[in-house]
Amino acid sequence: MSQANDVIDRISPAAISSDEFRRAGHRLVDQVAEFLDLLPASPITRGESPSAIRETMDAARPLPREGSPTTDLLDRAATLLFDHSLFNGHPSFWGYITSSPAPIGMLGDFLASAVNANCGAWLLSPMASEIEAQTVRWIAEMLGYPTGCGGLFVSGGNMANLVCFLAARAAKAGSDIRSRGVGGARLRAYCSSETHTWIQKAADISGLGTDSIRWIPADEEFRMDMEVLRTRILADIETGDKPFLVIANAGTVSTGAVDPLGRLASLCREFDLWLHVDGAYGALAAIAPEPAALFAGLSEADSIAVDPHKWLYAPLEAGCALVRDVSSLRGAFAYHPPYYHFGVEAINYFDLGPQNSRGFRALKVWLALQQVGRDGYAQMISDDIGLSRAMYECIAENPELEALSQGLSITTFRYVPPDLRMDSNFGDYLNDLNRELLTRLQRGGKAYLSNAIIGGKYALRACIVNFRTTLQDVKELLPLVVRLGKDLDGEMRRQSEP
Fold first, then answer.
1. How many angstroms separate the CA atoms of 223 and 122, rounded?
2. Given pLDDT bands bounded at 50, 70 and 90, which one contains residue 342?
3. ω into residue 317 within 30 of 0, thus cis?
4. Domain 117-359 has CATH 3.40.640.10
5. Which residues, in sequence order, are CB contacts of 273 under 8 Å at separation 6+?
6. pTM, 2 dp
7. 373-496 belongs to which CATH class?
8. Fewer CB within 10 Å of terminal CB in the chain, N or C?
9. How far apart are CA 446 and CA 451, in angstroms?
């Protein structure tokens, strides 16, 4: 009986008092605010090795048997993260397509965690489900897509594209695909050679296999070659294969290229194919005035993947899958075992995607869309594109840099010593030089780029999806690259001397 009383009157080790919660929370908010203030003057990364990071955090220590004070733990975690991370919120972070996180999104995640809604079913998350539905509609509206579409939040671009891929498979492969599997069905999906590697994952996970992918070459502007696409579809039909899906890019990862969406939509109607648009990075540029013409035809897609944690500046994770006909999502994912007794009058997201238990990802995006507004996002995206173009123009004027491509907010270029600029015999050397140059840039912590291969040339790649970036940040990149490139070129030439 005494044991039962102990349980009734128990004080859980996980609980903390409201006063302690306030103290710890207020202290942490102050620390985060100070971190954001100091971020522009801080290194993007310290370039530490995995072993150094593990030593700093004492990674080998066993799990503590007893608990520790809340504030002490938060202080230590903040110190570890603030001193030993790579900061994609830094104004000069242009490496991968991960945006600088908006502060309201940080607070939104805090609020979402407090409510801890399970957004798998409406009954478990009534307000959260409706907020997600409204956010999906608002994103569709920004893209000029039908607001009556189906859609849901997922972890990111890979998962958003996968959800749409599976919806396409269920819609176009035949009614028994889910019960009997792909079997001998020779389903074929078509995409540009510039398409992200999510397509291999999707073909593998869906059971089609990567041999089902038809890679279509890109033209000189890095867009899918329409004539080759048509020829390949006809050839596959002739041999008894079943084309079912064409994947268009709305902003490729390497160069920001946008495939001819309107022409692809017409071709898909002609052959009764599903048109999916991978707009994880670039589709939201449709709201900006200058690039809007590139996205003509986007509204005709059967599905679109878009990442709010890219050009809506949401903290990770936030991907979104949009499907024109919501029944296509249900056709791909809905099952109803006896213990699910949820009504059909409400949106139950376990019917629309692969997850049952789902976090409340939409709140941070919903808040930010209202804080900033459509016009605010159009301005910020336009600014990012303008800064990328300014970078390209400055590079083109520099005798030690070679501008290679510019699309949406992505610029690619490389360092070329002036005495090698007109000599085509040093292609391998220049690739090695720029490869090592990128390594030094990334470790240096002043600016963070990534790479691309442009016409066989190893390129430095800067993608600006960062509302903290200014023209001054862009201008400071070039002398840094030239200085490091010149020093490295000298070192490499000395090492090659007999």
1. 41
2. low
3. yes
4. yes
5. 172, 233, 243, 244, 245, 246, 267
6. 0.94
7. alpha beta
8. C
9. 17
The per-residue pLDDT for range 254-268, each reduced to its tens digit, is 999 999 999 999 999
From CA 350, how far away is CA 336, in angstroms rounded?
A: 10
Q: State how far the Cα of 464 lies from the Cα of 94, in Å rounded to an integer.
A: 5
For 483, other C-beta atoms within 10 Å of its C-beta total 11
Closest listed residue to residue 381, CA positions, set 303, 452, 313, 297: 313
Fold match between domain 117-359 and domain 373-496: no
Give me the DSSP letters along 114-170. Answer: HHT--TTSGGG-HHHHHHHHHHHHHHHHHHT--TT-EEEEESSHHHHHHHHHHHHHH
The residue extents of the domains of the chain are: 117-359, 373-496
Residue 480 — φ and ψ, nearest 5°? -65, -45
- Is the Cβ–Cβ distance between 477 and 447 less than 8 Å? yes
Token pair of 12 as six digits: 């859980």
Q: Distance between terminal CA atoms of the chain?
A: 88
- Concatenate the DSSP letters of all residues of 2-46 into one string: HHHHHHHT---TT---HHHHHHHHHHHHHHHHHHHHHGGGS-S--
3-state secondary structure of 412: strand
Tokens of 98: 């991960």
